[in-house]
Amino acid sequence: MNAKSRRDFLRSCVASVSLPLLENRAWPQVHPKLPAIPLPYWSTRLERFIDPLPIPQRIHPEGKRGGALFYRVRMREFEKPLHSQLPPAKLWGYEGQCPGPLFEAMRGVPISVEWANELPKQHLFPIDTHIHGAASPAPAVRTVPHLHGSRTDSRSDGLPEAWFTPGHSVVFHYPNDQQAAPLWYHDHALGITRLNVYAGLSGFYFLRDGEELRMNLPAGDYEIPLVLQDRTLDKHGQLNYCPTYDDGTEAAPGRWGPQFFGELPIVNDAIYPRLDVEPRRYRFRLLNAANSRFFHLYLNLAGKPTDVPKLATFYQIGSDGGLLEAPVPLQRILLGPAERADLIVDFSSLEGKIITLSNDASAPYPGWDLLREIHPPLLELMQFRVVLPLTRSVRAFTMPSSIPLPPVDPADEVVTRDFVLSQRSDAQGKALAMLINNKGYDDPATVFPKLGSVEKWRFINTTDDSHPMHVHLVQFRIVERQGFDFGAFLRGKLEFVGQPRPPAPGEAGWKDTAIVNPQEVLTILIRFEGYEGKYVYHCHVAEHEDNDMMRPFIVVSAGAKPA
User: Fold this and answer.
1) What residues contact residue 198 under an 8 Å CB cut-off, 6+ apart?
2) How many Å apart are CA 386 and CA 405, to the nearest integer?
3) Residue 123 CB neighbour total at 10 angstroms
4) Which residues, other chains included, contact 1 with Cβ-Cβ below 8 Å and sequence gap of 6+?
5) Domain check: are 354 and 414 in the same one?
6) 42 belongs to a structural domain
7) What are phi and psi of 544, to 5 degrees?
């Protein structure tokens, strides 16, 4: 049976099923004539690891307003080269920086931020006006920042439709009433999030507390933020946004495609940078800020990316929502878009060595349905060179043997909700939209959690790609992942197969984004704390959330009637 006949057969099966959530599933496809992988233009022309790693500058408050520290952040267009062998590229950034300036906030110390849009009225990239929220009369340039991972009032959350245009600003308030965590901020404007973030609108926000500070973790010059992205440049060294379909073919100019994979790795907005380090412990705060790309990272002591890897061990001490209960020794770590990791790397025994931060994740991820790679792999991201002398005495630090995390008891769960992830495709199998429960963002809200309640959410992935699912307002705990019988699901029944798998040790703490793999159910527990009001949940592949894999939910008072 050829690919088209197989698709038609599967569609006929779906048409006979009474479960409407499955009628738009993205079926696995065989691609007998896969396009050849184009040779990336710049990746073979740029010398690697010659430029120093840029470190994001810290931002300082201008004073106080209303009892809160007050900051002003301007969104601006600017130019800078992404590599010393390239001409300056036109970028967007907070305070003219990519990544944006680093916020350092303290738990219990609220801040207010005036976000000012000083961008030009012409976007860097064409706008697909067929996407919800991007059609006329919506202007091309509009922004709204979202502090990802924060427990914030809905009016300061950065809802996608709360965008504002050049010449305008908003003031958002962040109470910082949660445990220390590596939060991050990025644009969230409806229908163009993928374009604004790709242009450069993202940055780190470190929330600290007394417990973290008492641990004497590596700090100052020894705590390094690493913002991981991927970009494609044209022959003039300018950003080129060229999304593709599942088979690797490019979308028509200015039209939406379900994924974007850049040809060059970007770390702190530099291509193939290096960091010279001392033979001591460092703390690295990692963020996957890529549009679609997953990173499966490792520290490689081998000389070439094609050599057999020689792996260095590191320790994960925290994830999205803060510190883990105990350090986790690792040699590899997976980060989907929007996920963060707090790592300790000890270079003490590696004096004189060169270590390459490497990646072997496929694009798209996990790529189980592909016959071969159709996007260039990004095997090397940056290098660490242990060539600096010790300039200060090394402070000893000891992680507690156990850091108790506030429990979320499954017995407290009052509601279980299912969310089916699917893809609507055309007759040729090309994606038209990504959906949750067969609904788009503009459809009325159907989820109304009660403030203070605990709910169990199950994300059921019927597509061929992994989706990093993000829930605003809350941090949650992963319960388990488990496969399901797809044939039974076609008949309207969710039947699990195999044994449930607990979260990996590195994701057993608080999370705000978690990966759900193909034909898998991800189960999480959420306590809805903080505020009533409207929020959203969505896939954090930016192309997916921009084209309807995002839905609203409304937190209601504890005394409200069940919804």
Assistant:
1) 125, 231, 239, 241, 260, 291, 542
2) 35
3) 17
4) 9
5) no
6) no
7) -75, -45
CA distance 92 to 468: 25
Residue-wise pLDDT for 30-72, tens only, equals 333 444 455 678 888 999 999 999 999 999 999 999 999 999 9
Residues of the domain holding 498: 3-30+406-555
Domain match, 246 and 358 both: yes
pLDDT over 80 (residue 454):
yes
Q: Convert the pLDDT of each residue in 179-190 to its tens digit.
A: 999 999 999 999
Q: Are 457 and 419 in contact (CB under 8 A)?
A: yes
Three-state DSSP class for residue 184: strand
> Are 229 and 368 contained in the same domain?
yes
Domain count, the chain: 3
| Residues 325-372 pLDDT 10s | 999 999 999 999 999 999 999 999 999 999 999 999 999 999 887 777
Band (pLDDT 50/70/90 cuts) for residue 7 is very low
Q: Does 132 lie in the same domain as 206?
A: yes
Q: Comparing C-alpha atoms, which of 215, 150, 211 is closest to residue 176? A: 150
| Same domain assignment for residues 141 and 275 | no
294 and 371 assigned to the same domain? yes
Stated pTM of the model:
0.92
Q: Does 396 reside within a domain? A: no
- pLDDT for 25: 31
- Answer yes or no: do 112 and 24 share one domain: no
Of the candidates 148, 495, 483, 157, which has an alpha carbon nearest to the alpha carbon of residue 337? 148
ω into 366 cis (within 30 of 0): yes
